[in-house]
Write a structure and sequence with these properties.
CATH topology: Rossmann fold
Strand order of the largest sheet: 3-2-1-4-5-6-7
Number of domains: 1
Strand content: 5-15%
Distance between the termini: 41 Å
Order of helices and strands: EHEHEHEHEHHEHHE
Structural class: alpha/beta
CATH architecture: 3-Layer(aba) Sandwich
Shape: globular
Oligomer: single chain
């Protein structure tokens, strides 16, 4: 059975990705930082295990991969958001969002690559954001990290292609998860109005895209960023 690791998979997009991959026959390791009960419940549901790890900490990431062993698929999903005026952002807040959103992908990819290179096969999928493509007012730092992730995907795909490893990204639009909890009903209605398909996205929408990119049907696709955004206008 092929092995997958989905970071930040105790809830939201990550949890649905884990469920969908398990249904496709993957043995999925659940990664979490704070939501232990949800992570362990999901692991029990899928017959897998949950591993606590702060992906921004390289030592913790190394320990996680020592525990799980090599994986055939890495879904780098763990991320945090920050909304507000950039002029009011503290050094600590800036450092944390960069360390988690971009540093986390770096740490996990670096740890996953040796096994994939040895096997001359593997797939890495990084979850970016539509804001990484277009930017977002009052979400400048978040946009910057997600935009950097897109460049990371494109560069790493070229680096690992000769080893038979595919690297792709997904740029979700407004997905109805806890990350939108800071927005009012009016804000969410505005998001729907700006989305041509006329609804918020669901975690399952992203999970299906992950399964496609991870599967044999995407065997000649690498270095791409797939928008799962309902044709949202920013």
């Amino acid at each position: 059975m092929k092995k997958a690791l989905v970071t930040g998979s105790s809830r939201g997009i990550g949890a649905e990705c884990a469920r969908a991959l398990a249904q496709e026959g993957w043995r999925v390791t659940i990664n979490y930082l704070n939501s232990r009960d949800k992570a362990e419940a999901l692991a029990a549901e899928l017959g897998s295990e949950a591993v606590r790890c702060d992906v921004s900490d390289s030592a913790q990431v190394r320990a996680m991969f020592e525990r799980t062993g090599g994986v055939d698929l890495l879904v780098s999903n763990a991320g945090i958001a920050w909304s507000g005026l950039l002029a009011e952002m503290t050094d600590g807040e800036w450092r944390r969002i960069v360390d988690v959103n971009l540093g986390g992908a770096f740490n996990c990819c670096r740890a996953a690559i040796p096994h994939m290179v040895h096997e001359k096969a593997g797939s890495i999928i990084c979850i970016s954001s539509i804001l990484g493509v277009y930017g977002g007012s009052c979400e400048t730092a978040y946009s910057a990290t997600k935009g950097a992730l897109i460049a990371f995907v494109k560069g790493l795909a070229k680096e690992l292609g000769p080893s038979g490893i595919r690297v792709n990204g997904i740029a979700p639009g407004s997905i109805d998860t806890d990350m939108l909890s800071c927005f009012t009903a009016e804000d969410k209605a505005g998001m729907v109005e700006n989305t041509y398909l006329g609804r918020l996205g669901r975690p399952e929408d992203v999970a299906r895209a992950v399964c496609f990119l991870a599967g044999d049907g995407a065997g000649f696709i690498t270095g791409q960023v797939l928008g799962v955004d309902g044709a949202m206008v920013i």
